[in-house]
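Appendix B, Record 12. Input sequence as logged:
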Amino acid sequence: MPSRRRCCKTLCQSCKKKCSGEVLRVQDKYFHTQCFKCKVCGNSLAQGGFFSKDGAYYCTADYQRNFGTKCATCQDYVEGEVVTALGKTYHKKCFTCDRCRQPPPDEKVTYTGKEVLCQKCVQIPVRDGTPKTSPTTNNANGKIAVN
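Logged structural output:
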């Protein structure tokens, strides 16, 4: 003989009342649509994206403000595909060579101790910026001698 189970009530995780009418299922929890709100601002999460952390639900803006990571270059919050280098996080488009200012095409870079360089720029010799003296400019008054 099959066993009979009593039908259990599904309760809203927020208000703890019986779920009826429009109900959302989030993972294994149920909410009235009007009860599914951001923990910080209280705005409805029923229509848009949300984040979950430690059993609480957050709108995108509040999640980023409280737990997000900012790009080391532009200071906007990073989402999706990112680059992490030297302990910093960047949007893929913001991680650029310090010389040519372009994103490294092959994602390989060299850190020189001062600069992050793409493979093309690391091949270019560095000038130190100090003018070299030549026989024509090495006179006492600093004027160039023309012969």
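Confidence is low (pLDDT under 50) at residues 1-8, 134-147.
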